[in-house]
Design goal:
heterotrimer; B: 406 residues; alpha/beta; Rossmann fold; 2 domains; six-stranded mixed beta sheet; four-stranded parallel beta sheet; 43% helix; globular; C: 323 residues; mainly alpha; two-stranded antiparallel sheet; two-stranded antiparallel ribbon; 13 helices; 4 strands
Chain lengths: 295, 406, 323
């Protein structure tokens, strides 16, 4: 790799851009986890499986019903959210009185079931899903060739992340949500239907995962294990950002993508471990995470 | 409980079997048992997988289901490309189920682990799926045969052809395990011998789904050739990403070093046309290959990869050896297999060397243009034959402990 | 005071019962290899020890570690490397593996025990993943190939472990040692303090206990025993691979413990035996590709319906009907 030691700018910028694209996925996924954690106090281990479900719904739609990418981008999150809501109403709900760890274990079991059945039917090698016609091709940026679809991922995920942030921080519904995170009993006393709020929140968090899944479908092959590969990294992102912090999740997600990209330039061997190393440093310096409050 | 019972019975049976196995000139437990081990659902499942099991079953049926009056049975298992799963499975097969021979075997990492178990237990393995040339080089054993192809053959077929056409600077995308390492090493040797140079490379984990940053590095390297020292879904994903990032438009060429018929079929001719590759078998080459492949197609709905064809041929060769040796005792069968040349639809005058390498002619092929193809499976044109003695690593360069004088 | 005394006598009564159960188990263990495939039994013993080690954290210190695979793998790799490359005898190899796992447990513990509950689980999970990636790349692990052909060697340099039977009794001895250590630890004052911390941490602090220190010691002990399981396993199967370091392995040991009964002494053994038998049995038949799904279902059912596990439910049942 000696010829890379000089780091020509195209390598640096190229890898940073790829890092930002990966970071977009981290941001979307950790945002969903953070929202769910904030209100339900549950680490949603099925998040990776739900991300995979999003991609598969898009694939099913295209293959069997001719549903195109753009429709799938709206429809798949709705379908997966409906599944998520059913899970919350029938299973998760029974555990709110127990230790929160049981929520984590339940969703872990669900992830095994969902992924396992998909592996049984589709194998692990992945199904092809082509890039929508409008986003094919790409531009030569001088330092690299940027496929249009990858640029679209960054835009789409930023819009959704900041839209979500706006909704939570600036709207009435968001105010309820934040109040519920602080003190659900008090909120209930004010006449707000907290169980419904919880259900919708879980649904929305899951929908975010599915949205990321659809975004990922054309560039990664649609495979049953696509979620479990990325999930643990996202967990580390959530720990670094501080659990439950909305803005923390988004910013940390993007930041970790960039750091990963940077590592690929300077020391490629460490690119898979760098996020975990950052996590250790953060834990030593700020145990509650970059944006978290001391518990 | 049922499980325990089954294990109990088998333990008793195996204890009895151990005492009878000593008698040479007989078939142990009155049955010849073959275990078929492969990746049945993962990255490499298309090139061997369930199709390979079907090919092995075909071979047994064609043999009449019996050898010297004793029944032939086969069991299959999925190794998930994991060395521990494969090795543990084979250990149990031999200890409990009295398996005499293991066939199939795809991931080189699994194969090397399994071969160690097979050697320790003194049974036989015939490797058809794996590529790594180290299987009959530094990892060779007296109990294993490498049947279809290897990285040396691929490097000297495809690698040499690419260098001869002016591809003299290479960048490798290498699958980070035994196979990828062997592939990269063998091609590097060929490139250097032909006066070219290797300017860099990256190693990626098996079954990677995002190749974008690797492709970017390949582009930045300025190499003329991007060599894909990976296989199966990793190769198809690399090719897809390379297309997305416009590698070929920017003036680089891609060399797929291990490409199977099944990969070309699933990617389509539009993406793969003009790719050169080395293969040990192509269904549309001779009347014999066509006749056998047609029968295979009728059973599986797909044309055979070289691995699947090789599995049939190797099982057949094994059964023939058991027949003429009159026993399934390891030493006798191995000697018989090495002594007898292989002449069937798969190989002409194939020969198993002392290091376990089966040498036969290989073929340099090119993927047809969509306009040249006359059918779904009309995919290759054979450019030339690489004769057996040129295709595989000569014994004089071998590091195998079984080769005389080493 | 009186309740305290009552409890103590109950503990003693429980202990004698435990002793009886243990003797019975040992007896079965001694004759089992003549009826059942020894390699299968060794696998059960290794995983039973692994689950017992894990249970020490979850059942007695109340901390859910989602990273115990790292210790299992470390034990396996280090022992494998020591035996293969340094040529040491198996017992020394195991000792080195255990020390390495304990050292890693110390580092994990230092980083993780400052947090509790879900945070603790997430941090251990992420740390274990870091270890996984290190092992993917580190040259001594053989990466994706794993360490293959690890010799079983000669115990103390004299007793050959090549055959399955001698190896089995060696593994059984190791299991008994590990199990006894755990049992003694739980019933020592140290174990009582751990339980006190689990039940009410602020109270334990106000009583003057250095809570973090106790947790750390428990974590290191648990890691060392998980490493012992991994070391032994690598000798049994003569290989060490990434499967052991994967986070699914951390999930599996949770399942074993949960299914058998968290916080019971025999629970993890029962759970491990059940899960390993199930995996072995199912992987033969047509249901082989459904194994993860079935494990997931067991997980869900355990969490929703019987959180005290098989042994816990039996205990409840006997208490209700025979006391």
């Amino acid at each position: 790799m000696a010829e890379l030691l000089g780091f020509p700018p195209q390598v640096l910028f190229g890898q940073l851009l790829i890092g930002l694209i990966n970071g977009s996925f981290y941001a979307l996924l950790s945002l969903g986890l953070a929202i769910i954690f904030g209100l339900l106090n549950i680490i949603n281990f099925a998040h990776g499986a739900q991300y995979m479900l999003g991609a598969f719904v898009a694939w099913f739609g295209l293959k069997f019903f001719g549903v195109n990418y753009w429709v799938a981008l709206i429809l798949a999150p709705l379908v997966v959210a409906a599944i998520g809501i059913a899970i919350e109403k029938t299973l998760l709900r029974r555990l709110y009185k127990e230790d929160h760890l049981y929520g984590l274990l339940l969703t872990f079991g669900l992830a095994l079931i969902i992924e396992g059945s998909f592996v049984h039917f589709f194998g692990v090698s992945g199904q092809p899903y082509s890039v929508p016609a409008a986003l094919q091709g790409g531009n030569n940026l001088g330092f690299m060739f940027l496929p249009t679809y990858r640029a679209w991922i960054i835009v789409a995920s930023l819009v959704v992340c900041f839209g979500t942030w706006y909704m939570i921080e600036r709207t009435k519904l968001g105010a309820y949500l934040r109040a519920g995170t602080e003190n659900p009993k008090l909120l209930q006393a004010f006449g707000i239907n907290v169980p419904l709020l919880i259900t919708l929140t879980y649904g929305y968090g899951v929908a975010l995962a599915a949205f990321a899944g659809v975004l990922a479908a054309p560039i990664y092959s649609v495979s049953p294990v696509m979620g479990s590969n990325i999930l643990i990294v996202v967990f580390a992102v959530v720990v670094i950002g501080g659990m439950g912090s909305i803005m923390g999740a988004v910013v940390t997600g993007l930041l970790m993508g960039l750091i990963e990209g940077l590592t690929k330039v300077f020391y490629p061997e460490a690119s898979t471990t760098v996020i975990f190393l950052v996590m250790i440093v953060v834990l030593l310096v700020r145990p509650a995470g970059l944006f978290g409050k001391e518990a | 409980m049922k499980m325990l019972k089954k294990l109990m019975c088998s333990a008793v049976v195996s204890a009895m079997a151990a005492s009878t196995a000593a008698h040479a000139g007989s078939i142990s437990n009155d049955e010849v048992r073959i275990g078929y081990l492969a990746d049945m659902s993962g990255t490499y499942s298309a090139l061997a997988g369930p199709g390979g099991l079907e090919a092995a079953k075909m071979a047994i049926e064609d043999f009449g289901g019996k050898v010297n009056g004793k029944k032939i049975t086969i069991v299959g298992a999925d190794d998930q490309n994991k060395p521990d799963i494969g090795a543990n499975k084979v250990r149990q097969w031999i200890d409990v189920e009295n398996i005499d021979m293991v066939a199939g075997m795809v991931s080189s990492a699994v194969t090397i682990a399994v071969n160690k178990v097979v050697e320790a237990k003194d049974k036989i393995s015939i490797v058809s799926g794996s590529a790594s040339s180290s299987i009959t080089n530094q990892y060779c054993t007296a109990n294993s045969i490498h049947y279809v192809y290897d990285t040396y053959a691929l490097a000297h077929g495809t690698g040499e052809a690419v260098v001869q056409e002016g591809g003299d600077s290479w960048f490798f995308l290498t699958a980070d395990y035994a196979f990828g390492h062997a592939m990269e090493a063998d091609v590097t040797e060929v490139v250097k011998q032909s006066g070219g140079k290797v300017v860099g490379g990256v190693r990626h984990p098996l079954a990677t789904n995002d190749f974008s940053s690797f492709i970017l590095q390949a582009q930045a390297s300025g190499a003329k050739i991007v060599g894909l020292a990976n296989a199966g879904a990793d190769t198809t994903n690399s090719l897809k990403t390379a297309k997305e990032f416009g590698v070929v438009q920017a003036g680089q060429k891609i060399a797929g070093l291990l490409i199977f018929l099944t990969d070309v079929y699933s990617l389509g001719l539009e993406t793969t046309q003009g790719l050169q590759l080395t293969t040990g078998f192509y269904w549309d080459r001779t009347p014999e290959t066509r006749a056998w492949s047609k029968r295979y197609f009728e059973r599986t709905g797909a044309m055979p990869s070289m691995v699947q064809a090789g599995i049939y041929s190797s099982v057949n060769h094994y059964l023939n050896a058991v027949k003429s040796a009159g026993t399934d005792e390891t030493k006798a069968v191995m000697a018989e297999m090495k002594k007898t040349p292989i002449n069937d639809f798969f190989a002409q005058n194939g020969q198993i060397r002392e290091d376990g390498r089966m040498i036969h002619d290989m073929y340099l092929a090119e993927v047809k243009k969509p306009s040249e193809s006359k059918g779904d499976w009309d995919l290759y044109k054979i450019l030339r034959t690489i004769p057996a003695d040129k295709a595989f690593r000569p014994l004089s360069e071998s590091k195998c402990k079984l080769v005389a004088g080493r | 005071m009186t309740t305290q005394v009552l409890k103590n006598s109950a503990v003693e009564k429980g202990m004698s019962k435990t002793k009886m159960g243990f003797m019975l188990l040992l007896l079965i263990g001694l004759v089992a290899p003549y009826a059942i495939y020894p390699v299968f039994l060794m696998k059960v013993l290794c995983f039973a020890l692994f689950a017992c080690a894990f249970n020490l954290m979850l059942g007695y210190a109340g901390l859910l570690s989602f990273g115990h695979a790292a210790f299992l793998a470390t034990g396996g790799y280090i022992t494998g490397y020591a035996v293969m490359e340094m040529g040491v005898t198996p017992e020394i190899g195991i000792l080195i593996g255990v020390i390495a796992s304990a050292a890693m447990g110390f580092v994990f513990g230092k980083l993780a025990i400052r947090r509790q509950g879900i945070y603790f689980a997430m941090i251990t999970l992420a740390l274990a993943q870091l270890v996984f990636f290190l092992y993917v790349q580190a040259p001594f692990t053989g990466g994706e190939n794993g360490l293959q052909g690890i010799p079983r060697g000669n115990l103390f340099g004299v007793i050959s472990l090549k055959g399955n039977l001698p190896m089995y009794y060696f593994v059984l001895a190791i299991f008994v040692i590990g199990f006894t250590i755990i049992h003694r630890a739980i019933h020592s004052p140290f174990g009582q303090i751990l339980k006190a911390i689990r039940e009410n941490e602020p109270r334990a602090i106000s009583l003057g206990y250095d809570v973090d220190k106790y947790k750390l010691v428990a974590f290191v002990l648990s890691a060392a025993l998980a490493g012992l399981a991994g070391s032994t396993k690598s000798l049994v199967f003569q290989l060490a691979s990434l499967t052991d370091a994967n986070w699914h392995m951390s999930g599996e040991v949770i399942l074993m413990t949960l299914l058998g009964g968290v916080g019971t002494i025999f629970g993890p053994v029962v759970g491990a035996a059940t899960v390993v038998t199930l995996q072995n049995y199912l992987s033969q038949g047509p249901l082989s590709s459904w194994v993860p799904v079935i494990l997931g279902l067991i997980f869900v059912v355990c969490v929703l319906l019987f959180r005290s596990g098989i042994v816990g439910e039996i205990k409840k049942f006997t208490k209700k009907n025979f006391n």
